[in-house]
Amino acid sequence: MFIWNCRRTALWIACLWASLALSFAQSGAQISSPAAGSTLSDVNVTFTWNAAPGADYYWLDVGNIVSQGDIFAGQVAGTSRTLTGLPCDGRTLYVQLWTHIAGTGWADVRRYTYTAFSGCTFAVLTSPQPGTLPGNSVLFAWSPVAGADAYWLDVGNTVAQGDIFAGQTAAASKALTSLPCDGRPLYVQLWTHKAGDWLAPQRYTFTAAMSCAVAQIANPAPGTILTSTSPTFTWFRLPNTDAYWLDVGTTQGQGDIWGQSTADNFLPVNGIPCNGRTVYVQLFAHSNAGIWQPPQQFTYAAPSSCAQLTSPAPGSTLNGNTVTFAWSADTGADQYWLDVGKSPGVGDIYAQPTPATAVVVNNVPCDGSLVYVQLWSRRNGLWQTPNRYTFNAGYACN
Prior knowledge:
Blueprint: H1 2-6, H2 12-26, E1 31-33, E2 45-49, E3 55-63, E4 72-76, E5 80-83, E6 92-101, E7 105-106, E8 110-115, E9 125-127, E10 138-142, E11 148-156, E12 165-169, E13 173-176, E14 185-194, E15 197-198, E16 202-207, E17 217-219, E18 232-235, E19 241-249, E20 258-262, E21 266-268, E22 278-287, E23 296-301, E24 309-311, E25 323-327, E26 333-341, E27 350-354, E28 358-361, E29 370-379, E30 382-383, E31 387-392
Antiparallel strand pairs: 1-2, 2-5, 3-4, 3-6, 6-7, 6-8, 9-10, 10-13, 11-12, 11-14, 14-15, 14-16, 17-18, 18-21, 19-20, 19-22, 22-23, 24-25, 25-28, 26-27, 26-29, 29-30, 29-31
């Protein structure tokens, strides 16, 4: 374009030389060392380039991806820059050099590829694989280094920062939870401590998961009043999950009422108070990668009135084949129903309604087997969700 415009002026020779000089300047500096396409000889490398006419500064990017500076990105006033702690696992490194022409702007970028050095004894991240993280809980693992006594892992929102996580470990892995789930870039650096010194870190870039699946309780509906002191909590199954843990407590984050793991997506819980207080529930999911996800927390209101078995003590051993079962009165209830059986929810030993708050049950086994009891109450013509209990049969019959 400059040469075409020169044809329109009488000073075309001077204009042509000026156009050629500007064109050369705008072509930008070129890296002379290391040689383009070569294998780097160390983790500490000095990149050198020619001085471009009219340039007032340069910008150097080194990354794991084309046009990215996730390993290094910075402005340089001179014609060289020494970088330390480059990867040492033989990966492909992408380098780009920008030239800024005073009064004109950025010239064309120059791009290069190199093969990283592969002969060092730094810890190298082996998991997760480069790309998008699988969720907000990730197990970072690396190759152990002979003679190393510690490692340091940084995870951050910017290169070389540990604003999300920063910590030391003697192991060759670290499980992190509560990572972002919004697709942002995440920058990781791994240090190795050996012979009393921290070696230059290895740097990596990942993409945060776009969304994080979490275990959600389906029933009872969160925020509702529980209809029984022995409810069954159910939740939606998650992919790549092999276990769950449910805590039920009188304070948030505690399992002082109930705490148990299961491979199923449901769990019966006993011992909910019957005084209308707030009940706190938290549900953990355990991934196939061996990590417990951060819990999802829920609140409920305990039932304010219900029939609860008072004798024999729930979970105790029965003292004969004739047992008197007694319970507290349920305000507003006009009838109760007691089931006693050899399996959950079955009344094959005893099953009868009664307006009283105690019944005598005969023919209870005396073989040490489990005995299952459920107690119903009827209010306003409706049978409420039963409270369930388990006992051990005795070995001596009266």
